[in-house]
Amino acid sequence: MHDIKWIRDNPDAFDGALKRRGLAPESARLIALDEKRRAAIVKVEQAQARRNAASKEIGEAKKTKDDAKAQELMIEVANLKVSIPEMEAEEKRLSGELDAALATIPNLPLAEVPDGADEKGNVEHHKFGKRRDYAFAPKQHFELGEALDQMDFETAAKLSGARFVVLKRGLARLERALGQFMLDLHTTEHGYAEVAPPLLVRNEVMFGTAQLPKFEDDQFWAVRGELLASVEESRLKSERLGLIPTAEVSLTNLVREAIVEEDALPMRLTACTPCFRAEAGAAGKDTRGMIRQHQFTKVELVSITTPEQSKDEHERMLSCAEEVLRRLDLHYRVVTLCTGDMGFASEKTYDIEVWLPGQNMFREISSCSVCGEFQARRMAARYRTKEGRAVRHVHTLNGSGVAVGRALIAVMETYQQADGSIVVPEVLQSYMSGMKTIEKQ
Question: Which of the listed residues 39, 73, 103 is the one where a domain comes to its end?
Answer without folding.
Answer: 103
